Amino acid sequence: MTSHPHPTTKQMIDQFSGEPNYSDPNPDDAVALSRDRIPVRSLTQEDFDAVVRIDRHDSGQDRSAYYRRKFEEALGGSGVRVSVVAEQDGAVVGFLMARVDFGEFGRAAAAAVIDTVGVDPAMKGRHIGKALVSQLLANLTTLRVESVRSEVEWNQFGLLHFLERCGFRPGQQLALSRPLN
Questions:
Q1: pLDDT tens per residue across span 107-137
Q2: 20 to 30 A Cα–Cα from 104, which one of 24, 57, 87, 175?
Q3: Is residue 40 one of the residues assigned to a domain?
Q4: Read out DSSP for 62-110?
Q5: Closest alpha carbon to 115 in 71, 146, 155, 76
Q6: Signal peptide position in this chain (predicted)?
Q7: Single pTM value for the model
């Protein structure tokens, strides 16, 4: 890979926009453009209604209270903000909510956790989910996060297949659960 002595157009725009853009750490604008066909940006409070709408279509339930808590955590918490949304024609068409943990269960390692993802049903099959994961991975690489993980119900075959296509594999950890009743 060659290094450019002068900043790229994208880097100059990012410098003056006020918010860092980690959409593609590659300094080659042609590579960045081919990778960023679907606009993906950081989650904001204004995205709440769109996220709830997309989730309602997918789950068949109104989970507004759950998303209020998730938005508070993602936008108001002291953690690193890595949640993203995808847009088409100015409308939110997908979202991915994640967080960065700097150690748990006795291990000190930066790891990200994807806990919620959704794509507008009308946009399925258009690589929205792949763009969301790609953007997240670029952001996490820039932040020097070492790994990313998620949990999926065993019978969510579509989501399992999607994550496999994105490079996820079964981890070395076994999640244990016990009902309290």
A1: 656 788 898 999 999 998 899 999 999 999 9
A2: 24
A3: yes
A4: --HHHHHHHHIIIIISSS-B--EEEEETTEEEEEEEEEEES-BTTB---
A5: 71
A6: none
A7: 0.74
